[in-house]
Structures are given as C-alpha cells and as structure tokens.
Amino acid sequence: MMMNKRFVVVDLETTGHSPKQGDQIIQFAAVVVENGRIVERFSTFLNPNIPIPPFISQLTNIHQKMVEDAPTFEDISEKIIELLEDAYFVAHNVAFDLNFLQESLAQSGYDKLYPSTVDTVELARMLLPTVEGYKLNQLAEYLNLNHDQPHQADSDAEVTAKILLLLMEKLNSLPLATLKQLYTLSLHLKSEIGELIQGIMNEKQDDYHEGYDFVHGLALRKQRPVVKPSEVLVTYEEFQEQRETLASVFSSFEKRTGQEKMMNAVHESLMDNEHALIEAGTGIGKTIAYLIPSAFYAQQHKKPVVVSTHTVTLQQQLMERDIPMLKKLMPFELSAAILKGREHYLSIRKFNQFLKERNHNYDVILTKAKLLIWLTETDTGDVDEINLPSGGKLFWEQLNESNPSHLDFKHPWNQYSFYNRAQERAAQAQIIITNHRLLLLDVVSKRNLLPSYEQVVIDEAHHFDTIASEELGGRLDYFSIHALLSRIGLLDDKGLLNKVHKLCQKHDIRLNTKKLEEMLEKLRIECDDLFRLVHAYVMKKNKQTDSEIGRVSYRYNVQEENTLHWHTIQEQASRVRFLMNDILSLLHADFQVMDSYQEQLTKREQSHIHELTSAIEQFHHLSSEFADFFFQPHLEEVTWIEIEPKGAANATFLYRQPLSVADTLADTFFAKKQSVILTSATLTVNHSFSYIIEQLGLYDFQPLQMTIPSPFDYRSQAKVYIPKDMPAVNDVTLEEYSAIMAESILDIASITKGRMLVLFTSYEMLKMTYQYMKELNDLEEFVILGQGVTTRNRNRLLKDFAQFSQSILLGTNSLWEGIDLPGELVSSLIIVRLPFASPRHPFLKAKFEQLRKEGKNPFMDYSLPQAVIRFKQGFGRLIRTKQDKGSIFILDNRMITTMYGSHFLHSLPDVDIVSESFSVALHDFEAWWTSKKL
After folding, report:
1. In whole angstroms, what is the distance from residue 468 CA to residue 437 CA?
2. Roughly what angle, to the nearest 10 degrees, separates helices 478-488 and 390-399?
3. Model pLDDT for residues 211-259, shown as the tens digit of each residue
4. Are 281 and 710 in contact (CB under 8 A)?
5. Considering only CA atoms, which of 363, 364, 487, 338 is closest in space to residue 418?
6. Residue 297, phi then psi, degrees to nearest 5
7. What's phi and psi for 766, nearest 5 deg?
8. SS3 per-residue string spanning 330-352
9. 3-state DSSP call for residue 786?
10. What is the model's pLDDT at position 59?
11. Is the distance from CB of 535 to CB of 651 less than 8 angstroms?
12. What is the distance between the alpha carbons of residues 265 and 289, in angstroms, rounded to a whole number?
C-alpha cells in the first residue's frame, strides 16, 4: 500500500532565502509518517553564528537568545541524513526546503541528497481546488487543524504532516477514472505525485461509485434535482410576530430595530409596487432585511425576486453565507439560485477535448488536474468556486460555455451543461441572485438572460449608475484583439487554425488556410501599427499622467480631430476594418465547402471548425467597434483614450460612455419594473437622496426614501482626528507633501503598533509616500505594504496585511470600499486626501461641460456628492462590528478650511472629533488609545 511508504516531512526556519549568500538555518524539524500515521518527531533550534534579522524574528518569534546555546547545523547533519534515508522528502514548498538543505549539507562537507519529493503545496493545489489560498496557515484553517505556532519549524512540520495524511486520504477516495486522468497529467508536475497516484491505482479493483456520473471518461458529481418551491405556510405578518424565535435558531442573533424597520419598508414597497431608496448603516443586517420580505413576496405571489450585487464575489457571499441562514429562518422550503454569464461555467465537452491535447505548460497541466478533482465535487461548474493559477485563468477562456456549438445542444453534452442547469435552477427559484452587469446586459440587449421578473433589489446601489454607464458604452484595446488572434493562431502553432488545417489535410478538404493565415498575420501587424499610432498621438497631445490611475488620457471627438496624424490613424483603422471584412468573406466562402463534409468529421473535428468560425465571427463586432471609435460622432457620449506611458507602445485603451444614464434607466428599467429597491450604506449626501435620484433617473417615480443609521456607538468605539497644521497639497511639492505624510503615518503607527489602513486618491503620492516610509522604517519595525507597489493583486495584499501583526497597508481606488477587516485587523484608518475624482479625467471634463450648459454647478452638483459618498465608504472600513474600536485621522485640512468641508463632516456619524495641531492630536490619541486598550 502507498501508505506503507516512509515519508519524512521537513520544515526549516532560516535567516533568509539564500544559503549561497550566507543565510543559515535557525530551526530544523522533521516528522516521520509510516503506515498512515506519525511515528517519529525531531526538532531543534540551530545556532547560525550570525545575527537573526528583525523581520525574521517578528515573523518566526525566534530570537537571538533562543539559539545562542543551540547546536550548529554541522552537529546534526548526520542525524538529518539518517532520517531521510529511503524516504520521500515532503515539504510545504519542497524546492525551498530541499535546496536550502542540500546547500547546507554541501557546505558541511556532505554529498547532496536526491530523494523522491512530494510538495504539499502542489498536492493541495491539485486536490483542494476551491481553497482560497495554499499557505500553511490557510490550509490548516480549511482542514480544521490546530496550528498554534506558525512560522516555527516544529509546528509547521507537524501541520504539514497532518495535511499530507488528509490529502492522501482524499487521493485514495477518488474514482479510478479520475485517478487515471490525473496520473497522465502528474508526469509533468514538479514533485513525484505520480508515484503516489500509481500506487493507489494499483490497489483499486473497480470504479463503481454511486455518487458520480461518468461521461467520456470523466467522473462528475451526480446532479441534484432542482428544488421546486413549496406552498406558503406563514404570511410575512405572522412571521414578524414570531420573530423572537430567531434567537433560538441563531445564538448570535439579536433583535435590531433598524433591521426590522428596513424589512417592513422592503415588504411594503414590494406589496405596493413602488420603488425605494434605503440607506442602511453598517451593522443593521441589511442583507437579511431585504431577503426575508423578498422570500415571502416570491412565495406568496409565485413570482421571483431578483437580487443584484456589484460583484460576483458578493453574489457568492450571498449564496454561501446568507441564503443558508435564510433557509433556516423560513417556515417554508426556500429556493434560491445564482445566475451569471455563460463565461462563468465550465463546458464539459470543451474540457474533455482539451484534456486529450498535449500541453506542457505547467499552469495548464495544474488547471486540468484541479478541474478533474473539482468535477467530482461541484454542483454548479462556476469558475468562482475554484482557485485557478494565473495561466489557468487564460486557459479558462477556452473551456467555458461561451460561444456554444451545435454539439453542445446534443446528447450527452446538453444533459451535463452547467449553464443550462443554472438556468433551470433560476427558472424555479424564488430568489435569483445576479450582478449589476448581467442585470443591465439583460435590460440593454433584450436577450432574456434572466428569467422574467418585475421585482428587484439592487444592493450596493451607489455603483449602479457607474456600471450602467460602462455597459451602455464601449471599450476597445489591443490586448483583447491580440488575445483573439493568438487563440486563432497560425499554421505552425497550436491554435485553432492549425487544428482545422490538419483536419483538412486528413480529409482532403480544399480549404484556403494558407491565404487565411496570411490575412490574419497581416491583420495582427496592422492592428499593432494602429494602436502604436494612437499611443503616439496621445503622448503628443497630453504628457500629463492622471495620478489616480497612473495612465495618460486624452479626450477626443472625431468631428474635431483634424490633424494629419489623426487622418493617418483613420486610414489605418480603415485598413484594419477592410481586412476583417475580407477575412469574414473568405471564411464564409470557404467554410460553405465544409458543410458537405460534416458526416465525415468526428465530433472533435466539428468542434474545432465551430471554434475557429465563432472566433473569426467576432470580427463583425470588432469592425463595428472600430467604426464607432474612429469614424462615428457621439453627441451624447464622451470618447477618450488611455495609454500606459511606461508600458508597451501598443498598450492603448479606447473608451466611450454616455454622459448620463438617467433617461435610459428611467425608460428601459424603472418604468418596466413594478418594484426596484435600491440599498447601500452610502446613498445620501447631506442627508438627502437628491444626488442618487438625479443620477439614476428616478425623479418621476417618487420612490420611498428611508435612512436607517448604524446601531454602533461611534462615540465609544471611534474617534476622529483632523490636524489643523497639515499643509495644503498645492502649497508644497508632491515630494514634500509625501514626506510629511510618511512621517505622520509612522508617528501614528508607533502608537497602534501597525494595524493601519491608509487610503490615498493618487497612486503617484502613494508610491512616493511608500518610498519615504521604507527609508524611515530602517529598523523594519513595520511591514509596509503598498497597493500597486508590493503587489497589484488586491486579495494577495489583504492576505499579507492580515498575516503580519505590525503591518501598514497603503491603498488606493479599490481599497476605499468592498473590504471587510473586522476586529483588530485595522486599529487605525488614515485618509490622506478627500476622495475627489481627478478633474483631468476625460469623462469628468465632459460631464462638467454638460452640467454648465444645463446651468448647474459641476462641483456642488456632481464632484462633491461623488466624493462624499466615497468618503463615507472609506470611513466605513474601520468599524464593522460592535466590538471594533479605532481611530480615523483625516490629513486633509480642507475638511476644516473650506466651506464644502462641512458636507464631509455632516456625513460622519455621531462621533467625537478632535481638530488640533498634529502634535496635540497625537498626544490626545495616545491617551485615548491607551485607555481603550486597558
């Protein structure tokens, strides 16, 4: 049996990453596994004979005194060699531990070891496809393992050994069909996982598993029947009378006046067929407050209620956290479904096809392995369930259910379509959860992407007008076209054209693939030239970078661009359009020949032809977009170009958006629905809904308007500091301002010991402040993280922030909202600048011009309300529960030196505000902070 093999799980703590540059091991630990259980443990601190860096001590909690009297590595070298004899070398990121150990042994005069290896990171990435992350602490939490001393070798090795045992159990439980597919893929993995799989396969006799369906050698989890709604047993009013029973269902449940008020408002709006605007403060339980009356309405009237969120992540949160809670509350069997676009769902047919194709790209191999496991577990086939590597996300574009072929509507593929199943669930559901983009696409395209509905709840409604503007507009960029052309490929690569060329040769079909290749290659060159021309045009017109997005932008109007350079761009755009149309003509003429060969072709070959034709058919849409962006005037829209000044010369993005979506939403959405309930924690400005009503086109509908304040006691939980002596940003240079910010942030951090979120509006200022802070933090007292500096990945940034106790996170744009960092993760919030959008942005420039023509004040009627809403979102990052405590420093003196500063002050809840010099404010904060920590 595979479990009878000897596995030695090793973990090292070191002074750094490179033994060749003098780094040393400070702790060694090994856990021996035999016969499916731990049989031996060995661990020791080691004296490195060099100082342990402060950063390492903070991370591992291993200090110099702990290793002073410990043995050296040479003292235990023979013991290590003895432990590893005839065993698999197992580690969490095996390359690091083995390479470091090899080098250390070589420096001690021993030969290098060459054991078979098992990397638990690689094994976990394959066998646990839905885990959010694969760090040791993340896996320990996911698998409910106690990990009391992370980053100490003995604790890490123990947890890694337990993870290995659990992963081996899972591997052993898989159906033989899945193991066979995995074995083929495992030969290209980095560690010897294939040996483990082969050992298990040798022991399996048959492949009968009643929990799976088998389709073309793939094991799929058996489909659950779609649940039909039950008959209503209790009315909403009766349920409200019995609400005290909720406390018995949930130990953490508490009766909230605000939540009850919102529930009743949502219920009345649904029953009275009226629209509503509800600002629900943080902590009132807004989600349950709209879900309960929605569920009762849907059950009673046999009509679904659609719930729309800003992002698919929040859709997932609703379905995984809130709906299960709601099902326990309801006195009837509630049915809820989540619905997304086709691109979110795995196509079994396409995956089966690509599984058979050879590809030595590591991310693609790992993705195939993850998908094989995932298919034995998933009910939905929704990509948002699975954690794909970066290359796997690109590979997904070829695997999802977008652009279905006629084969997808035939047996067996139609029976196992995840998208069809999602549609069936939605058709039967009382609550349909979707996102703003799909909701608006359904409205704009009139393609019936959602089941028929008349009642809808728009959560995070402060984003709705922005998403509507993007959906009603358009975007064109080189990278999207390049990705499409790469997918089509040429005759000498592994793209779609190559596959069709080979099948034509096989069946002696005369198809002009060579001519098609020449035209496609010419199109790629012409597109590259076009976007380079546009890039150069923007650089000539505007050399000033927009500090908020880090790009150079230029607003243009085709009727007003009369330079020779622009006419050259138009000529180039015409060549691109003509080439696209010529390719489409050639495709239609040649592929008519293919119809007579359909019966000779295998289903796989038919699929190749469909994928090539559907890819090239996208040139229809692209040709239309080129006409829109380069030739058509847009009276009610703004068109602009953004470029990456330091990026590739073709890194160019063209945008167009309507100046206002109010009339369109009023006519095509609000007038067509019986009840639209818009809710968010930030809808009002100066206690008025006027701004959001104006933006969404709700002025003729007289919606119900309600503000429900947060139940938190901000006077005891938080304190706001607005230093009077901060310089105005325009009075000093960016360098001087950033240096002052860096010093101020570190002064505050010295009191809170990190745990600080700092929000910027300018990426340029963030980068400069980060550099100054790194220089001032020479003793590495704090771990400083900068969005777009240390990483562009928001989730990675937040994970790193949570991992280190003395961390400071500098963020811009997306960190102003949509993140939940409760408890002691954030002790202090710093708002560096009031969040006004850049007045240089092309859309804002055009919007301001329009407002002036209408006799309005662009600043008071648009810029200020937008900034106040964003400010409220930023403020909301600090206090997320009744137990949270913390401070807010606002380092922008416009709060107290301008007339409009009062709008921001009035948007704050009832909280103590200290407005003194920075030194006095800091002294007051230190006293307040100390009292709160006692």
Report:
1. 8
2. 70
3. 888 888 899 998 877 766 666 667 888 887 776 655 555 544 556 788 9
4. yes
5. 338
6. -60, -45
7. -60, -50
8. CCCCCCEEECCCHHHEECHHHHH
9. strand
10. 80
11. yes
12. 9
